[in-house]
Fold this protein.
Amino acid sequence: MNAPAGPESPSETKSSFSGKYGRTAVMLHWLIAALILVNVYLGLSANYWLPDEQIRAAIDLHKSIGITVLGLALLRLLWRFSHKPPPLPPGFPRWEYTAAHIAHFFLYLLMIGLPLSGWAHDSAWKDAATHPMQLFGLFEWPRIGFLLHLDPAFKETMQLHDRLGVLHTWLGYALYALLAMHIVGALKHEWIDRKSVLKRMLP
């Protein structure tokens, strides 16, 4: 006679859910994450420890990666609209479902807003017209037209370049904080709750 079924063990609960993102979503997720981490390093190194002769190359690479992240984030957002993501594992409280949706909304907002603010910051530079921006040294990338062609005296009076730089910096801090919470939350679900959300985004 078979014994009555008892409650599932944590390992059984963890392995019973198999919803995963598709390969394209996984590839975009990890590629964007890697590029953001590289750009964090480039931005900090240019500000704090690189010798002067290496700063320009680091900033140019930082700009190119930022534009690439912008394009990939827009592509991922379009993919998200056309491909329904897998559901979260069962058993999460309602507030965690809500928090996950809010966090993802702001992650997308910052992944798009941060590169845009950097692009605007660069376009408002007083010497932008005479110093073309190169995308990975392959071809010239256009500046944002209305910012590029503003009267230089107006830019100086309004301190437009500096203010957009401050905006870019603070959006960067916001993204770093949100990414840290995103990682901590995923690890909490993996190791403490034993309800893996990480495996949904693993190859």
Summary: Residues 152 and 202 are 49 Å apart (CA to CA). Residues 160-191 form the longest helix (32 residues). Strands lie at 133-135, 139-141.
